[in-house]
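Hello forum,

I keep getting stuck at the same step: I have a sequence, I want structure tokens, and every attempt I make locally crashes halfway through. Rather than fight my setup again tonight, could one of you with a working pipeline run this one for me? It's a single chain of 1019 residues.
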Amino acid sequence: MKPTLFGDLVFEIRASGPRAGMLIWPIPPALGIVVGLALVLHGPAGHAEGLFDEYADLACQVAAIDPSPIGEGHLGPLESGAFVQVRFPVPKPLPLAYAVQLGNTVAFSGRGTSYKLLLRRDSQEGPVIYEGPVITGSGDAWNADNLRPIDLTDKLTEQDAERGYLDVYVSAQTEGDGWTIYRHNHGRPILALFVQSDEEIRQAIEQQKAMEKRGVALIPAPQKIELRDGEFGLTGKSRIVLPAAASDEDRFAARDLAEQIAQVCGHKLAVEVGGKAGAADISLARGAVARGGEDGYRLSVGTGGIRVVAQGAPGLFYGAQTVAQLVTEHGTLPFAEIQDWPDYPLRGLQYDVARGQTVEVEWWKRVIRDLARFKLNAIMIYGEDDYRFRAYPFLGREGTFTPEKAAEISAFARNYHMQLIPQYESLGHASAVLGHEEMKDLREAGNSWVFCTCNPKTWEFLDRVYAELVEQFPSCRYIHTGADEFEMAFGLCPQCKAIVEKDGYTGLYAQHMNHLNELVKKHGRTMLFWPSHGGPTPDLSYLTIKSRDRLQLDCIPTEWIYHGPPTYPEIEQYQKLGFKDVWASPAVVCFSRIWPDYRTTYRGIRGFLRAGAERRIGGAMTTTWEWMHGGVVANSLLGMVYAAECSWSLGKTPVTDYERRYGQRIFGLAPESAAEQVRDVLEEPWKNEGPAAVLRDSRLMTNLFFEDPRTVRARIVLRTPGFSESAQAAYNAVLAAEARLEKLRRECDENWAARPHVRQESPAGTGQGQAQAAVPNADLLDYTKLAFDMYRYGMAKVLALEEASKVYSRARKLGEGRATQASALEEAAKLIESLPPQLDLCIEVYGRAVAKLGAWRGDVERMAKQREATVRLAVELRDLAGKVRQGQVKELPTASQFGLTRGRTVRIGTWEPKEMDEAGCQIRLDVTGKIQAAGDVLVEWNYQRGAHGVSLQKTELLANGEVVAVDEHEGWTGAGSHNNTYQLRLQTFNPQAKYEILGTMKSSGGTDSFGDVWLIFEE
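Reply #2:
Ran it on my machine without issues. Output:
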């Protein structure tokens, strides 16, 4: 939202979600603690309760003002009972809810025995407005408690609003320690949080309360709804009546409505064209509406029947969807008057098929139908080598879009007023296409990542491709040409380089983009594109903005911002450049992870789309990316539907209200428990506190699941402080989440079975049997269970390997006790053998996701390889046990050979492209002080990112320049790293020596490689 002015002070208005991220900063060593600043809007008793807790999602943030402590650093030690004045702005009129954030209030040393926060208003002797709990044990716990907003809604007065501020006198009562406050600055803000009391928000909240009271679950929330006493009852004789001149589109809307009503309550309504609607009927007709153009509608439910009026076919369809959502299982609808229209003309979702997804036609039809019923009207297909073309039959992955699939899905989508927009990468991201040998001439200086701008064959190819895309998706009004993340391989060939030397990178970029625009217009469409962001150098960054005077402007940048910042100045920036329009593209943050990040998703979608609506932009295109590495599209549905909610009516009600409606609408949950169940099962199954909070790191958990059992301890467990200690609690937390999921599933089944028409159709009126299979959307919960099983397997792997490492360590210490030593090895093998059956469950359900949803088959293959590796590890341990029993082994191998390392890890350095060489290179790292005793030292070379992996030859340990240990073997680090750990045995430690690690290696295929180097010290 835009800045709001209070007098001479400008405050940033932020659409802050209930679970915003945490900013951690170090406190000076004298304080000896670390404090986090977080906008944690759902806290324990005494903090974010009452009105503020209820409406926290809608809160704006404003900074404390003078005479508050403002500047750098803290106030120094303050005695128990001392006061500090903080002045917080108060808007006029009084806000609906108000809280203050005092996370800058911290214990001084953290070593006291008790701490308590106290707030008074107006003066040091003024009335107490907040008295916190007594926190004992450590200052860190008090610091964490202070991070949570303090609800002061009922402490504000009209005088505060007239004056424009509230003076809060902050004090702490401490024992055994002092306390202090960090001054307000950009990095450490002291904030007031409030929900504005304007007409729009008040109306939205009043409507929310009324709908919640009546159990109404409409998605998206309508712009204006008035619920009245009484209800309308459908009967078997009710009809859906259309005027004689009804179009085919309107007839489809009527049939679709009849189908939904039959599913919900069992009434099979006839569709009649040209009749006169009676008091028992539903009428769908064209007519004038006040707002919304073709998409707007009016809906009336009363004693005279149900009447939907819309100016255009889309609006009539959307009005019919609202009728369908109002129908209860008993065939009743509440009396209501609704005026509804979208805040965005184009409301879209990008669907990424470029990560190995296959296009399953029935699943795509289901997605189109369901999202259209939530009033989205566009799906943009992100593809790379993901379309088949007659002109280029060698293109198009197996299982992806073909002309036949595109034609069938496009025709289906037209009925639902959904346009499918093809996206074809036409500058960068081109490796999937240009990697084909037939396409090598179009590569920029031989680099398949970028199309060569100066090659006429590039334009011949793209011309034919666009022509076929228009044929395959005839209802689309746009073609998205991609055009982001090209900068690292741009302007390299002699012809392109000559243009750069003459006109700069902006000249070459403008030439390419203008040519794309001309091609798209040639085929009767408007060009969409991703604007250029940061590149490898300043000259190669933000080329769209820099090229503004050279670019054709009758095209539309789709600006991509995913993290949910406080403001979005980029919208106005692109508008001022003069483009035809600019579309807002937030994201469902599901990228290459098992479980989406819904905190960021909610904040990003709502904030970006609100900001765009204020600037009156025309398109909301929420993105999804990379359903792979455990990500399944079904588990992103909560965010996809939220995109529909916000692109229609901007998400003006709290997230908890959306979650209630989602739980009721998607799974038929009871209204009084739906929000809590959705939040605790489908949004945030893992709490952000206690040892199980590690589960909230979805990247870490995804890496854990797919990591080979031999490397999971060295790469993840030993490098994540406290991981082993929290593993059991995290495992138990997953079991608890699975129990909540099963409870939700049972309620879903029971509620469906209890519906009157289901009971009648079920054997013996039990509500069981075949009717159970008809529970809408219950199949989606299988993929929620899959994600939980993957988390559970990851933690089971940590626990099994932790115990196996203890057992193996014990076996090495047993020395000559062969039978006991062998038994210990067999025990370790048994622990590893417990893992494959758990992984089998994941493989089975993920295979189902591949078959039914088009999930990435590569994930199943990775799971199968991990299973093989796990079985092989157990076999090796059992074989070793047998050899020990037979006396064939004098000394057990190091634990690292089996991935059972115990000890500690230290990162000793990195490498980057400038140090790499395809002919061979060496990396020398000083480890003096890190090696402190004789014994085994393991060195791991760990690729992190870049286009090229590294082939390893040997690793040496030097003391004062002399080699004292060496391990020489072929290894590889990159995609599929193997043999990249080197074992060095230091026989004698010299405390005065300078120790260095020297690695000999060569990069493969180029020098674009970044990585870390680790020392692993075994116990």
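The chain has a mean pLDDT of 90. If your local run keeps crashing, start a new thread with the error log.
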